[in-house]
Amino acid sequence: MKNVDNDQTYQQALAILESIPAGMKYKEEIDRVAFLRQIIGWLGFDRLSSKVIRLAGTNGKGSTGKMVTNFLVASGLTVAGFNSPHLFEVREEITWNGDVIAEADFARAFFDLLAVLDDHGVDLLTEISSFEASFLTAMAFYIRKNPDYLVLEAGLGGELDATNAIPRSDYTILTRIGMDHMRILGDNLTAIAQTKVRMVREGETIISYAPQRPEVDTVVAEIAQERGNRVFSAAMVELDQVAESGTQRTVTVTVGDQQIEDIHLGLQGSYQLGNLQTAIATWQVLSQIDAVSKIPLAALKSGIATAHMPGRFEYLQEEPRPVIVDGAHNVDGINALIETVQGSFANRRKVLIVGFLADKDTLTCVQDLCALNDTTFIVTTPDNQDRQLAAEDLYQEFLKFTDAKRVLTIANPAQATQYALEHFDQENDVVLATGSFYLVKEVIKAVHNQ
């Protein structure tokens, strides 16, 4: 379909996407990755000359990918990206030079995909999942635009993820790998790491978060030896100094024999320091071995300073008291949130709006959260009918680790948010929301609509 440029056609694309039945198709008797790779070939992948950077890991993919995208764009390169999950609408998952794809571009790419599927007898509604459809739409867009770089974030795992269908890749960034999605990826850290790291192609360059857990380092080393990969650790970036002033942080690092001062870290949360090291390590590797990307130091600093990720320790308000959302939906994410809260708000009264999906290790998350001092919990139900954990069930888990006086149950996220804003409105209070991104989305809407 050519010259798609109207809102109605974009809305038609959304209507078709929303009619795709929920769920994944991993269990079907078909090699999903090979099937999707064939479709990408039909879309004309051979015309794409972009360098490809992929990200896999349990936490930090979005933030690390955003910093990398930003410094590439700041250096004058064209960059297309894919990240998930979206908060409000699907086109958030596809970016061009750091900005969300335009409605007309999304519609054109989607209907180009639909035409290719029809030409080859593939039914979108019965043979493609909604996540796969989003990624294939992105590929149709990338192939037409042919940017200098693609920065692709794996949605779930790595080896079996739709993003692994891309026929070639130059770099893999491994962010911190931990326990999550155990029903799909494996019930121990080694199995989970293998599922993620097996997406690495022969000869591809790996940049890995530091410190990874020992089991993860072992898996990375084994696969790299088997496939001839060069592995660079983010430990090459040493944090020399971190200065904080309110929500502003200025960092000094050493990379090799070069000290870099006055790096302004735009992303909030103490855990972003590890992601910062991974991004700077990527900058160092690209600058050393990739002739396409001689990235100036000024571009690196600009890219880091301007990075912003909705829903990742995001301040929705600062006055009269902070209102913060953080989509910490697994044990590592929750512990990173706790570390930040204890460091920044230890002596303040806190209310934490909490909601999880039912397939998470909520018991461990709840146990860890209950260690927070001077904190009231409001348990609620995320907006996901298929996977939500009911507020009453989450309330019972909290009672295993804390007094009932600390826990309120308000099933509706908007009502839970309104209660928190009305009852914790003093200068010394802090309102936080965490757990599922399906909860974070509702909290953001409630705060903006108050």
UniProtKB/TrEMBL annotation:
Q: Where is the Mur ligase C-terminal domain?
A: 311-437
The lineage's top-level taxon is Bacteria
Q: Which InterPro entries match?
A: Folylpolyglutamate_synth, Mur-like_cat_sf, Mur_ligase_C, Mur_ligase_C_dom_sf, Mur_ligase_cen
**So what EC number does this one have?**
6.3.2.17
Q: Does Metal-binding appear among the keywords?
A: yes
Please give one Pfam family short name: Mur_ligase_C
Tell me where in this chain the Mur ligase central domain is found.
139-282
As its record notes, the protein acts as a catalyst of: (6S)-5,6,7,8-tetrahydrofolyl-(gamma-L-Glu)(n) + L-glutamate + ATP = (6S)-5,6,7,8-tetrahydrofolyl-(gamma-L-Glu)(n+1) + ADP + phosphate + H(+)
Sorted alphabetically, the keyword list is: ATP-binding, Ligase, Magnesium, Metal-binding, Nucleotide-binding
Q: Which residues cross the membrane?
A: none
Listed PANTHER family: DIHYDROFOLATE SYNTHETASE-RELATED, FOLYLPOLYGLUTAMATE SYNTHASE-RELATED
Task: Please give the family membership noted in the entry.
Answer: Belongs to the folylpolyglutamate synthase family.
Q: Which NCBIfam families match?
A: folC
State the name under which the record lists this protein.
Answer: tetrahydrofolate synthase
